[in-house]
Amino acid sequence: MSETPSERALTAEALVAQLIALLDVEELDTDLYRGPRNPGGVGRVFGGQVIAQALQAAQRSVEDGKAAHSLHAYFMRPGDEDHPIIYRVVRDFEGRSFATRRVIAMQKGQPILNMAASFQLPAEGLHHQAPMPDVPAPEDLRSERDLREEIEAQVPEKLRRFFLRARPIEVRPVNPRNWFRPEPAEPVQHSWFRVVAPLPDDPALHRAMLTYATDMTLLGTCMLPHGVSWMTGTQTASLDHAVWLHEPFRFDEWLLYTTDSPWAGHARGFNRGRIYTRDGRLVASAAQEGLVRVKD
After folding, report:
1. For residue 63, what are the contacts with CB-CB under 8 A and spacing of at least 6?
2. Is 207 left (phi over 0), alpha (psi -120 to 50) or beta?
3. Which residues sit opposite 292 in a β-bridge?
4. The predicted structure's pLDDT at residue 86
5. Per residue, what are the HEC states of 160-206?
6. What is the mean pLDDT of residues 156-162?
7. pLDDT tens-digit profile of 212-260?
8. Which of these is catalytic: 215, 229, 261, 285?
9. Which of 36, 45, 105, 146 is a good FRET partner for 178, with 20 to 30 A between their CA atoms?
10. Closest Cα to residue 242, out of 205, 215, 268?
11. What's the sign of the alpha-carbon dihedral 272, 280, 186, 251?
């Protein structure tokens, strides 16, 4: 079964409004926040959601113009979509130029994620960056949604609604993969992505949205050389996740996410990501190690 009539009726603006609401953590007390559940979510919480909500909680505890420039998170337990997530912020350091926050994400009394985030006042300094890969523009590529709809008949009935549902973030892969019959390939991916409707002029929200999206496509990069995917009987889970925010950006404009995987072994895969604006500025980097077990 594919989308319900109510799901089909969601406009791009409504989809983005849902994502904004999902990342709008509620303040329960000083340095204590509650992250809302994803409407219609079933099973395990998407890791990017937990990291983004944790970043939002940390950002709301920082004042005087400091902006997040890096975060490092460890996943300990899978989140459960049946329950909200509680975030406890610890103010480890408050300096003139930098501040550090530690966030513990909890469900049913148990931690599911620990995250440390660092914040900095804007400053000038030396500058260089890795060049942007030469890839086709997003207008020359098909959206992942169109590619998924093209193979709807191949999707098992129990997975069809999840596989085909409308999403607030549009992805346009440079080299589309076959989810059900993947061929071994070099462990490198390039994808354009952005939210499907304009966002408010809130830099903290754009940072949280991008952090949410860095968990998309990243872990799959280490599976490319082995001809497997999350649809071919693999057990996967994020173990840790890091994001470095280098430059200002807008997540309602096209960004290129280029990922590579230099190593996999011992049921783990290591992946790196770089994020560029259309004019070639490197605005963020990401890294993740994940569990990858191939089932019989």
Report:
1. none
2. alpha
3. 236
4. 98
5. HHHHHCCCCEEEEECCCCCCCCCCCCCCEEEEEEEECCCCCCCHHHH
6. 74
7. 999 999 999 999 999 998 777 789 999 999 999 999 999 999 999 999 9
8. 215
9. 45
10. 215
11. positive
**215 noted as active-site residue:** yes
Our separate counts of H helices and E strands in the chain read 6, 12
Two tokens at 85? 């997530």
Residue in 281, 273, 264 with CA at minimum distance from that of residue 226: 264
238 catalytic per annotation: yes
Mean pLDDT of 68-97: 96
- Verdict on whether the full-model pTM lies above 0.90: yes
In which order are the strands placed within the sheet that holds 85-94?
Answer: 26-29, 32-35, 85-94, 98-107, 110-120, 67-75, 234-245, 282-294, 268-277, 255-265, 188-195, 169-173
Instruction: DSSP letter for 222, please.
Output: G
236 in Cβ contact with 174 (< 8 Å): no
191 assigned to active site: no
pLDDT at 61 over 70: yes
Per the prediction, the chain carries an average pLDDT of 93
